[in-house]
């Protein structure tokens, strides 16, 4: 099984350390060739996790793909998922995680405890709600 990670920071490194316990081939996409995960994966690809083409071309060779940070190209993940690549977490969840307004609304709609919030679209609205 070929498993990819978007991002090669400390979380990516920890994922790879656990993956070593399984019969999997690991791939990492990251801009920094000296990132913490670079020397632990089987295959390292230098690329931008926010770039559609980099993410899509990296992911289309894999069976499964995960992220270590939410700042990834979700459109590429959606296309990969539609083409049969298993994505964890699902692109629909990543969209919510990336947008703090959507995240707070999701919490409220699903009765998940969160701090009070007010959504503002303009500076004037922000000033009107400031204490």
From TrEMBL:
Residues 1-97 form the PurT/PurK-like preATP-grasp domain. InterPro entries: PreATP-grasp_dom_sf (IPR016185), PurT/PurK_preATP-grasp (IPR054350). SUPFAM superfamilies: PreATP-grasp domain. Transmembrane segments: none annotated. PANTHER family: PHOSPHORIBOSYLAMINOIMIDAZOLE CARBOXYLASE, PURINE BIOSYNTHESIS PROTEIN 6/7, PUR6/7. This is PurT/PurK-like preATP-grasp domain-containing protein.
């Amino acid at each position: 099984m070929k498993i990819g990670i978007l991002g090669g920071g400390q979380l990516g490194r920890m994922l790879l350390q656990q993956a070593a316990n399984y019969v999997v081939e690991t791939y990492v996409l990251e801009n920094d060739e000296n990132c913490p995960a670079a020397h632990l994966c089987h295959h390292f690809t230098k690329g931008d996790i926010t770039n559609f083409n980099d993410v899509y071309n990296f992911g289309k060779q894999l069976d499964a793909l995960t992220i270590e940070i939410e700042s990834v190209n979700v459109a590429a993940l959606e296309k990969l998922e539609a083409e049969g690549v298993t994505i964890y977490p699902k692109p629909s969840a990543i969209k919510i995680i990336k947008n703090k307004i959507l995240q707070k609304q999701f919490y409220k709609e699903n009765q998940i405890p969160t701090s009070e919030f007010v959504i503002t679209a303009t500076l004037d609205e922000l000033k009107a709600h400031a204490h």
